[in-house]
Amino acid sequence: MVERRDPSQAATAETVIVLPEGRAFIGHWWAKLGDRALLARGLALITEEKTMQILGAVTTILRRH
To answer: What is the pTM of this model?
Structure first.
């Protein structure tokens, strides 16, 4: 499940869906001193575009066993 988020409301390390330059990515949000980035597991950089738009934060993942 995804909860709508404003970029100013996303917490660092929160799993978010972002839309930089028309492409959608999911990863961990990182923001500090005006810098913004989206990181993968293990802190590998996915993107650090200044124009990233947060679509929402992933709040629940349902898996079927």
So the answer is: 0.77
